[in-house]
Amino acid sequence: MIKIEGLKKKFGKIEVLKDISLEIGNSSVVAVMGPNGSGKTTLLKCILGLAKANEGNIYVKDCKINGNSAYKKHIGYMPQYSCFPDNLKVKEVIEMIKDIRGNNIVYDTELIEKLNIAEMYNKQIGQLSGGMKQRLSCAAAFLFNTEIIILDEPTAGLDPLSSEIVKTKILEDKQNGKLIIITSHIVSEVEVIADRIIYMLDGKIYFDEIKEKLYRLTGKENLNKAIAHKMTSGETRGAEQ
Amino acid sequence: MNKVIFIIALIALINSVNLSKEITVNPGESIKNAVSLADNGDRIIIKEGTYNESGILIDKNIELIGENYPVIDGLFNGDIIIIQSDSVTVKGFSIHNSGNRGLKDYAALRIENSACCNIISNKLNNNYFGIFLSNSSYCNVLQNEASSNAVTESSSGNGIHLWKCTNINVKNNTISGHRDGIYIEFSVNCQAESNSSFKNIRYGLHFMFSNNNVYENNVFSNNGAGVAVMYTKNVRMINNRFENNKGPNSYGLLLKEITDSYIERNTFSYNTVGIYCEGGTRLLIANNNLTGNGYALKILGNCTDDTIKANNFFANTFDVTTNSTFNNNLFTQNYWDKYNGYDLNKDGKGDVPFRPVSLFSKIVEETPESVFLLRSFVAELLDMAERVVPVFTPESLMDNEPEMKAINNELYTQYN
Amino acid sequence: MNTALKIFKYVLYDVLRSKMIIIYTLLLLIISFGIIFIGKDVTKAVLSLLNIVLLVVPLVSIIFGTIHFYSSREFMEMLLAMPVKRKNIFWAEYAGLSLALAAGFSVGTGLPLLIYGGISGAFQLIVSGVMLTFIFTALAFLSSVKNKDKARGIGLSLVIWFYLSVIFDALVLLLYYLFSSYPLEKATIIISGLNPVDLARMLILLQLDVSALMGYTGATLQKFFGSDYGMVFSVILLLFWAIVPTVLSLRIFNRKDF
């Protein structure tokens, strides 16, 4: 569904993405992991067209994303820090994004209901707490029933209950054939839902494995340990060279 | 016998009345002819119609009366009516098209070396000069309308022109489209009252070397260069209005070498320069309203002992400018709308002096292009600084008793 | 409906409801009403308002514009992740913000003038104020898209405002002083085109100080700017001043990484 070839991105002189290539199919939850500054968010932004690649190509549904914006109708996005205009009411924000997305859409209002968005319908964004904004943003990402859903640190500001609701929703959607991409640096969070781990370090893909395979390879039953093992073995490998 | 004497006396009486006869001129007949038939004291009635005549010489004291404004068309041949006798009255004519070529100053009505003449209610149109009085005295020029279509100064004449006259009364006339509306030279003890002089290409009123004259209640508006008075003593200019005289060399009132004169209760509004004073000595400029002028008062360094008192300076771009760093005149008790001072002792006078000369006006004086920066923040900043510490503007040019409220100069107007 | 228009509608809602624009409008209303109805003379009202239009309107427009741009960054990111063209987002933001500011100014200053009515120069004052709003919002966007860092962006905006409001005129004055022996009338007309604040000021001055402007060589300015040709020239230049920074910002915005 998404194919990336030789993606390079610089901010000024700093190389943030160094030659990234990967391919992601549908019906999966892909976790992009890595420490802060490793290039996770930039990678997502490149896919979303928020940042423009210096080199390389990105294809979404076999379509090269070259400055056009039409492909984005297949993507639902929840940014790391959601921010709607402070003086709009929640219902206006929902109206607005419906307006922008167009009419020929079967809305997926499940999260709007489950995350109790309705109770804040008449509040202005400025009056919402961080958690409430995050819920709204999350609901908005799923609202349009898109084939691809990209969530940047989705559970960071969510309360445990909402967090669980979202996780359930993610798994459900995966069953329905969707592709969900999540970034996170909290391992325990993605452990349950992700079935593929892309670990980034210093602008490169450090490893890219199916979760089950990763467990098998490292002989660990816990993602945290598996990653740790992978990292230390990587370092030894580096030292050997 | 008594009866006979009575009848003789009666006939004598009738005869004595009939001594001054009345001559009627109808269209098609000649006015000149009628004048030549007339004797001293006669009255000539000209009926409504058009008379193509010029050079009508009146050398006896007769009355020339037009009925319903008969038109005398000079067809551009020299003077139209020339008066060379005392006590002549010319009343109620439309006089058109005096000569306008050649070196001579042709006029619709010329009064030469005469006294006690009356020029009343004539409509003068498209003449070179309108009414030209020279070397005459005790004449009345009343209720005339003189309009022309002057284009250039050199090819046009004045509306009412006084030269070497005394005791002339110019009142209630309307003059437009001439070179100067009213021109007075070497004339004394004259008065110009309640005239309206507008849209003349040079000055609305222009006088030189004419002492002891009075100008009252006149309106001078939209003239090319306003009003100019020069080289004169003892002038009283009272309750006149000087309006809308705009242009690079336009003034409401231009004063040059004027001494011992009064400029009181006049209104100067929307002129490029309200009053321009060069070489004015012992002038009293008081109770005038100066409103909306580019420069309300330009007073040059050679003006001395003038008093500028109780005037209202209102909505002018610049209130006072001068080319000197010294001040030999007294500014007192004026109202300045730009004054921001306070009056703690409540005597109606501001407690801190007002300096009406702004630094920026000085800058504009030196580099006129900088008028471009007028009312910019930088210009206001410069003015503010200069007001606190005067360096470039005359330190003593200030009003020590600025009025807190506008002075009601209108009161005077009502009585006049 | 065009996507830009759809977004514009909501940006406009948002800005019109923001505290800052409400305060801006109310302050202008209070000041204008005060000057017109309580001040000692109405003829000077436009004159007093002139300083507000020339100093406050640009300052508020450029600072509020810059702050708004930075605080809308995440919102724009969110919009960018939707099937919306970048230029549509940009135009919606620019139009929403500048029209809201222009509306605030028009209500705050125009309404009292309209209620009082018949004050000479009022129309030019409003036109100039609205034009300056568009121009300085455009400059705010330019400064914002140029700087990723908010503090630097606001700093640059302040510098732009200070330059156009104060420094430029001071330099012009210095120029006049240095070249006072040369005829500078034509140069002045060119100089005026280099600063929108000066252009706006000329438009209003032609109504207020025509007597002074007609004196001396000032007549050149009066003749030029007072003629229909000059009026059209100044308005076109003002539009130019709004369009050029906007188009430049849009070009940068199109290539920008969020």
Report on this structure.
The complex is a heterotrimer of chains A (241), B (416) and C (258). Chain A is 37% helix and 26% strand. Chain A has 241 residues and is an alpha/beta fold. Chain B contains five helices and 39 strands. Chain B has two domains: 20-219, Pectate Lyase C-like (3 Solenoid), CATH 2.160.20.10; 225-357 and 394-416, no CATH class. In chain B, strands 1-2-5-8-11-14-17-20-23-26-29-32-35-38 form a 14-stranded parallel beta sheet, with helices on one face. Chain C is built from twelve helices and no strands. In chain C, helix 3 packs parallel to helix 6 (122-146) and helix 5 packs antiparallel against helix 6. The model of chain C has no long low-confidence stretch (mean pLDDT 88). The B-C interface holds B 246-248, 250, 270-273, 292-295, 314-315, 317-318, 337, 363-364, 366-381 and C 40-41, 43-44, 47, 50-51, 54-55, 165-166, 169-170, 172-173, 176-177, 180, 184-185, 187-188, 191-192, 197-198, 201-202, 205, 208-219, 221.
What descriptors fit this protein?
heterotrimer, A: 241 residues, alpha/beta, Rossmann fold, six-stranded mixed sheet, four-stranded antiparallel sheet, 8 helices, 37% helix, 26% strand, C: 258 residues, mainly alpha, 12 helices, 0% strand, globular
